[in-house]
């Protein structure tokens, strides 16, 4: 078994992954981080309490030596470090899930007997406080020895069932790394030993009635039971935090219908998905899930990508269209060719990305980590000083200092501090994946909520990214637009000529003309003598209605090269189209020396319908929106005006976009960049938060800190709103965790009693501690229901 390795972004260090055993609270993870982080060869370490994992960055070439040293050092601290198995995310998830279920089963197996012994113990020891009377043979004044021995007999099974608190807590103390278990062990152990001493002395005849009235068996047993119950509820709630990961795992079917490569008439064979290989032909029946990534060979249908992208509208597919694993086929039957299988599918990449994010830490967690490192020793010291203060400076009986000592120890809850941040990140990133937003780490999740400026690329973000034909103008001999047919050419004829010629081009605008020709049922025409001028246009001879036309389609410079100058009327039309954000193409007909401008084809990258509303919402959130585009100034400003964007920088090369982001950061702005992850890569890398736009079938998980699985600004809004909701949740958790301990510990120390109030019972203190962690986890689980409100 080898530790899983990967290279970090700067190529300077490689992280090793370990499964950590024996951690129970934030003090555990903080101790490991502090000690291992100072070892030779270790650059950085991140220990995740909920997932019980550690990621350790080391210098390349030192992995083996550091791995062995880390395992030994962690073992010396009283924990275990096992190199994480190099398995896929699905296997790792199932292993962790099975382990969690087994842990829950074991806890439940201990909990019921502990409750069974603790309840009668509570009735025997404190029944008189609840108005219950004991029979004379059990009453402490008439039968003190039986009273004491019965309580001891009821307590011993609870202590035995909860022995893991003592074994692990004592081991941590011996290794000078006390944990929450150490607090529980010392607190309940003190109550038990004090009571046991009184029992022994009472049975031997040393004032048995007085000894019987000074027992704390119920504090010990009920405390252990309540803490076990709290940990059981906490474990149950933590398991729900992985529901989003489980939902992603469930998208991949276990079997697929494979078609015979040679015998097309053979019936499909049902095989495990793990047995599929690239190139296999598969049958996708209506309503079934697509097992792997691939391309449609035959059939037409619509696929539901909602659980992958959050997009509820099914996407129509046909031959040559892409399919992604996990999507649901509609009513049509499809055959497909597998292209990416196993760990190479986009679904597998998404799952790995979510797993990475859930195991990461946000910068806001540093405060809790620092406090947790010193928390347990400080609580032990505080408990001792509080008990001594009551013993020395008050006239209270000896039971009061003991009660204070136990209450302070069991009131403290380092778990709540340790779980406050990672639980919110686990649930928040999981919810993001369900909504089509993949957040790669906790730092990006935290930073996205702080953005003050959002830089966006125009094409594919504010706009659809697919130019479409918006209009055709037929020009007369003077260059004026007309509704008449000129020289036998009308709008349909001009589009037929242009589409036939552009079929020989690979330019994005050419595809718009070809698609428009198909939509209008334009006939296909033979084309000869094609000449392509990159960046300018295309020319050739097109046969239409048994007549050859020498046709050229391109920009104004292309026409000028061919000896054609635009008239004033044509100039006015070109200016109006550019002002409206459209791209005009001129079309000429005729051989050299006799050609004339016959039409203007207007194309535009249409603004996404939701863009203006989303930009308005971003403004309401206090975010400034800046468009960075390589398009021309006039078109860019037209789109920005329609979308309501604050600022425009047009005609930028990729490096210039990065420079613009740097300039915004120099102004003190926290900058996010939204781009396609390819030509925007420099700006994405430089921004405080880079958001790479993809789609359900084309996710660039390598670019940016956040991957938007569906195009458009709605996904950006989801990312920012989710980040703010998660950070608000983390602050609530930290506020509760710190507030609970800051307020609860003085109360447990007897502060209220100093001013005439009651003493806090150790049982109530233990119950509060157990429920504190549960409250933090439960609050984090609220993020499972996050949605953007209108």
Automatic annotation (TrEMBL):
Pfam families: E1-E2_ATPase (PF00122), HMA (PF00403), Hydrolase (PF00702). Keywords: ATP-binding, Cell membrane, Membrane, Metal-binding, Nucleotide-binding, Translocase, Transmembrane, Transmembrane helix. SUPFAM superfamilies: Calcium ATPase, transduction domain A (SSF81653), Calcium ATPase, transmembrane domain M (SSF81665), HAD-like (SSF56784), HMA, heavy metal-associated domain (SSF55008), Metal cation-transporting ATPase, ATP-binding domain N (SSF81660). It is a multi-pass membrane protein. Residues 14-82 form the HMA domain. One of its GO terms (molecular function) is P-type divalent copper transporter activity. One of its GO terms (biological process) is copper ion homeostasis. InterPro entries: ATPase_P-typ_cyto_dom_N, ATPase_P-typ_P_site, ATPase_P-typ_TM_dom_sf, ATPase_P-typ_transduc_dom_A_sf, ATPase_P-type_domA, HAD-like_sf, HAD_sf, Heavy-metal-associated_CS. It is found in: Cell membrane; Endomembrane system. The chain crosses the membrane at residues 111-131, 143-162, 183-203, 215-233, 371-392, 398-421, 734-756, 762-781. It comes from the Bacteria. GO terms for cellular component: endomembrane system; plasma membrane. Belongs to the cation transport ATPase (P-type) (TC 3.A.3) family. Type IB subfamily. This is Copper-translocating P-type ATPase. It comes from Desulfovibrio porci.
């Amino acid at each position: 078994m080898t530790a899983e390795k990967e290279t970090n972004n700067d190529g300077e260090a490689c992280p090793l992954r370990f499964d950590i055993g024996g951690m129970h609270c934030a003090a555990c993870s903080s101790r490991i981080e502090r000690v291992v982080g100072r070892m030779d060869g270790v650059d950085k370490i991140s220990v995740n309490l909920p997932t019980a994992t550690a990621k350790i960055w080391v210098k390349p070439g030192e992995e083996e030596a550091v791995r062995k040293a880390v395992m030994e050092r962690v073992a010396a601290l009283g924990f275990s470090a096992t190199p994480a198995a190099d398995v896929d995310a699905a296997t790792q998830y199932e292993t962790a899930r099975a382990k969690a279920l087994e842990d829950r089963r074991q806890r439940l197996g201990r909990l019921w007997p502990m409750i069974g012994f603790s309840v009668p113990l509570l009735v025997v020891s404190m029944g008189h406080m609840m108005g219950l009377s004991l029979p004379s043979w059990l009453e402490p004044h008439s039968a003190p020895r039986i009273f004491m021995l019965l309580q001891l007999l009821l307590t011993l099974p609870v202590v035995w069932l909860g022995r893991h608190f003592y074994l692990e807590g004592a081991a941590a103390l011996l290794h000078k790394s006390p944990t929450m278990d150490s607090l529980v062990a010392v607190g309940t152990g003190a109550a038990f030993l004090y009571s046991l001493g009184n029992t022994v002395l009472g049975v031997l005849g040393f004032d048995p009635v007085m000894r019987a009235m000074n027992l704390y068996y119920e504090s010990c047993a009920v405390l252990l039971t309540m803490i076990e119950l709290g940990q059981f509820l906490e474990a149950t709630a933590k398991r729900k935090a992985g529901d989003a990961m489980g939902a992603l795992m469930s998208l991949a079917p276990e079997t697929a219908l494979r078609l015979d490569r040679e015998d097309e008439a053979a019936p499909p064979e049902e095989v495990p998905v793990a047995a599929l290989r690239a190139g296999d032909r598969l049958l996708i029946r209506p309503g079934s899930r697509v097992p792997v990534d691939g391309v449609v060979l035959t059939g037409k249908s619509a696929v539901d990508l909602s659980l992958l992208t959050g997009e509820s509208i099914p996407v129509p597919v046909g031959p040559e269209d892409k399919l992604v694993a996990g999507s649901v086929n509609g009513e049509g039957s499809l055959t497909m060719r597998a292209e990416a299988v196993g760990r190479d599918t986009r679904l597998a990449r998404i799952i790995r990305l979510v797993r990475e994010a859930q195991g990461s830490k946000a910068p806001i967690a540093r405060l809790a980590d620092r406090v947790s490192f010193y928390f347990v020793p400080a609580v032990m010291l505080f408990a001792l000083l509080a008990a001594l203060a009551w013993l020395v400076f008050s006239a209270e009986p000896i039971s009061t200092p003991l009660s204070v000592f136990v209450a302070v120890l069991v009131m403290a809850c380092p778990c709540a501090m340790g779980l406050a941040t990672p639980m919110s990140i686990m649930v928040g990133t999981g919810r993001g994946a369900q909504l089509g937003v993949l957040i790669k780490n906790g730092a990006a999740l935290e930073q996205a909520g702080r953005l003050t400026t959002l830089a966006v690329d125009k094409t594919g973000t504010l706009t659809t990214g697919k130019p479409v034909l918006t209009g055709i103008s037929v020009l007369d001999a003077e260059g004026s637009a007309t509704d008449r047919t000129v020289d036998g050419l009308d709008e349909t004829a001009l589009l037929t000529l242009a589409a036939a010629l552009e079929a020989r081009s690979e330019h994005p605008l050419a595809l718009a003309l070809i698609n428009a020709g198909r939509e209008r049922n334009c006939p296909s025409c033979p084309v000869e003598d094609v000449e392509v001028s990159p960046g300018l246009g295309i020319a050739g001879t097109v046969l239409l209605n048994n007549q050859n036309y020498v046709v050229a389609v391109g920009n104004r410079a292309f026409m000028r090269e061919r000896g054609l100058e635009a008239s004033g009327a044509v100039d006015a039309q070109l200016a109006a189209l550019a002002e409206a954000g459209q791209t005009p193409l001129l079309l000429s007909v005729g051989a050299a020396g006799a050609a004339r401008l016959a039409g203007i084809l207007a194309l535009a990258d249409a603004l996404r319908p939701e863009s203006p509303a989303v930009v308005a919402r971003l403004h309401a959130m206090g975010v400034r929106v800046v468009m960075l585009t390589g398009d021309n100034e006039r078109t860019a400003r037209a789109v920005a005006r329609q979308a309501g964007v604050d600022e425009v920088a047009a005609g930028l090369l990729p490096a210039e976009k990065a420079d613009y982001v740097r300039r915004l950061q120099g102004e003190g702005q926290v900058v996010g960049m939204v781009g396609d992850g390819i030509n925007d890569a420099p700006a994405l890398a430089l921004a405080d938060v880079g958001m790479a736009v993809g789609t359900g079938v084309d996710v660039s998980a390598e670019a940016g800190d956040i991957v938007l699985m569906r195009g458009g600004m709605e996904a950006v809004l989801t990312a920012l709103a989710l980040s703010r909701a998660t950070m608000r949740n983390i602050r609530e958790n930290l506020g509760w965790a710190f507030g609970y301990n800051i307020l609860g510990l003085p109360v447990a120390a007897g502060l209220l009693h100093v001013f005439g109030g009651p003493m806090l019972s150790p049982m109530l203190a233990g119950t509060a501690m157990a429920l504190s962690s549960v409250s933090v986890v439960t609050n984090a689980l609220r993020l499972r229901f996050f949605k953007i409100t209108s």
